[in-house]
Amino acid sequence: MAINANATQQFVPIEDVVNGVVKLKDGSLRAIIIASSLNFALKSEDERQAIIMQFQDFLNSLDFSVQIYVQSRRLDIQPYLTLLEAQYKQQINDLLKIQIREYIDFVKSFTEATNIMTKSFFIVVPYTPALIGSGDGIFGLLNRKAKQTPEAEAANAFEEHRAQLEQRVSVVEQGLVRSGVRVARLGTDEVIELYYKIFNPGETEKPIPLT
């Protein structure tokens, strides 16, 4: 039975991704931050307590909800193997070529026998615009006449909402940095990749179509 791709996309709540900002079909926006991990095993007891207290203060300071998403992926070793293959072809010393080839074979066999996983940590920051009525009577009529074109109005509204979202992102980034966590904002391509992997869990090892 053939699956209609357009029908399947109706269940995806994403309308568009603009400059790293996710526009959902309900009008709300999302920004995504990737965060580093902390190794508590290498911290002293005082450092652990300080980190926990700082993170607690960060959570208590938020007046909006955030989503913490942890993604596990199998480590993609292919770029490293490609680099080794290039070094092997360029090498003129026979002994070094043998050693490189043996190392390539070892890495291949090791990664095939062992599932090496990497974990990525994401913070999803939401913003839902408030719904305001257009108004009735003469004042509502005058306001409607003074309105811009629908395209310009939509663009202006998006920029206003994006500015509010950016303020929330800044608050989250500053709070995480104070806790000792490194953060980076995802751009459009990174956001598309992340959501593609989420909605296509069986294709995590395949290239991602961006068009």
UniProtKB/TrEMBL annotation:
Q: Name one Pfam family in it.
A: TraC-like
InterPro entries noted in UniProt = TraC-like_dom
Give residue ranges for domain TraC-like.
Answer: 20-197
Specify the domain of life of the species encoding this protein. Answer: Bacteria
Q: What is this protein called?
A: TraC-like domain-containing protein
Taxonomy of origin reads: Bacteria, Candidatus Zambryskiibacteriota
